[in-house]
Amino acid sequence: MSERLSFYGAAPEAVKAMLAVSQYVGQSSIEHSLAELVKIRASQINGCANCLHMHTEDARKAGESEERIYLLSAWRESQLYTPREKAALAWTEALTLLPQNGASDADYALLAEHFSPREQVDLSLAIAVINSWNRLAVGFRTVHPNDVRGSARAAA
Predict the structure, then answer these.
(1) What would the pLDDT profile of 12-24 be if each residue is shown by its tens digit?
(2) What CA–CA distance (Å, rounded) separates 71 from 103?
(3) Going by C-beta distance under 8 Å and a sequence separation of 6 or more, which residues neighbour residue 50?
């Protein structure tokens, strides 16, 4: 796979705006550990290798366990996630898969049970932002660092 376009180079003003929203999300009411789980789960759904590489690494640096990272795609069947995390992951899936499933009343009720109105908005914005980054990276085939290193080894 080769990169189609460097969106950073092609539209630096757009990327600057996206980074500003990402910075807000990083300083929002949503705890960092939960934000990383949300980013990983949305990136799994969207098949974004670049974002998965980045956010699993960030989660590890922040102290997330390998086991919870590995089991994230099966979070519904695991007891390793708190009720608050499960509510956030359900909302992440609902908003990421919005065209297919919509945002159900059940998912929203779970969200409202565990998150204040401010946190609901901040979490929804975090989900929107990672989905936007996923679409840019997947659409333009951003090559993640392991692919770059692997290509260099293969060429040697």
Answers:
(1) 999 999 999 999 9
(2) 24
(3) 137, 142, 143, 144
Burial 13-35 (b: 16+ CB within 10 A, else e): eebeebeeebeebeebebeeebb
Q: Taking a C-beta distance cutoff of 8 angstroms, is the pair 86, 76 a contact?
A: yes
Q: How far is 104 from 109, CA to CA, in rounded Å?
A: 9
Cα dihedral 43, 57, 71, 142 sign: positive
Question: Alpha-carbon distance 33 to 27, whole Å?
Answer: 12
pLDDT tens digit string along 92-131?
Answer: 999 999 999 899 999 999 999 999 999 999 999 999 999 9
Closest residue by Cα to residue 48 from 153, 155, 148, 139? 139
**Which CA distances in Å does 54 have to 34, 48, 51, 70, 77?**
15, 10, 5, 15, 25
